Amino acid sequence: MASLRGMQQPELSKKLFKIIKSENHAIGAYESAGRERISIASQISDWGEATGDDSVSDISDKVGVLMSEIGEQEDLFAQNLEDYRTVLKQIRNTESSVQPSRDFKAKITDEIQKLKYKEPQSTKLVQLEQELVRAEAQNLVAEAQLTNITRQKLKEAYDLHSAAVIERGEKQILLARHMRRLLQLLDDTPVVPGDVRPAFEHSAQARQVLNDAEEDLREWTPSLDAVPSAATEMGSNLMPTSVPGTSTVDPSVTGGEELASPQQQQQQQLESPLKAQQRDVSGSTAVGQEMGYQQQ
């Protein structure tokens, strides 16, 4: 079924669709790794108790606690990656909504070329050329929206991704350092047959290591350089909030009507691909429905 959805994707969004799908597999792998780590942590604790060595039992039990928390960090990392993946989907959906306008423009261009070859004097050429102007204007708006959303969401997505990697890394390093503190409490001096090892005297210190680890995790805060963004100047229609300029197209070409700027056309006669996408419950754009495309 997933392969079928990939085949149905518009050409423009196929590569990003594949990336998003691959990330889903990667996220699943992190979740699986986290579960396995938690399971191994429990096994380590059980093994330590079974050794009959109080020192080994105490240390292995607390190593297991820290290792279990490392596994929990894998699960948290997977959740954060899902947020990043969701942002990538916004680019993919916009790509899908732009494809119909590209196809429609190409279709009209092709019809004009064919008609010029077969019937160069046909009066239908004027009509088609007017239609091409409108299609180009519509595509101009859609392409501008696409480049705007692509740049904004690319920065947002990998801001989330890199922050998640840093959080996972720093927290796991923190836990690993406390684990090394635990290991320092275990006396591994060799004994000869018949010798009895002294009782474990560091239980309180070992417990304090866990308390310190818990407190460090609770007090951890990210220390990241901000990723600047000028996207605040972009309106809900994915266009700059204020862009001057009017079209220089001769009104006679558009049937006697003056062709507005791309921004004015979007408000007056062209429907934003993204707004169409948001209004359509099924996830397909108004243009996409006409051309037979659907959002995945």
Number of continuous helical runs: 8
Distance between the termini: 12 Å
Major sheet size, sense and barrel closure: none
The count of β-strands is 0
User: What fraction of residues sit in β-strands?
Assistant: under 5%
Could you estimate the helical fraction of the residues in percent? 55-70%
The SSE string, one letter per element, is HHHHHHHH
**Bulk shape:** elongated
Given helix and strand content, the structural type is mainly alpha
Query: Radius of gyration, Cα only, in angstroms?
Result: 31 Å
Stretches with pLDDT under 50, minimum 5 residues: 244-296
Could you tell me the mean pLDDT? Answer: 81
Can you put this structure into words, describing what you see?
The protein is an all-alpha fold. The chain has helices spanning 2-8, 14-50, 54-118, 124-183, 203-219, 262-268, 273-279, 286-291. The model is unreliable at 244-296 (pLDDT under 50).
Main features:
0% strand, mainly alpha, 296 residues, elongated, disordered C terminus
Briefly summarize what is shown.
It is built from eight helices and no strands. With 296 residues, it is mainly alpha-helical. The chain is elongated, with a radius of gyration of 31 Å.
Give me the secondary-structure topology:
Elements lengths: L1 H7 L5 H37 L3 H65 L5 H60 L19 H17 L42 H7 L4 H7 L6 H6 L5
Helix pairs in contact: 2-3, 3-4, 3-5, 4-5, 4-6
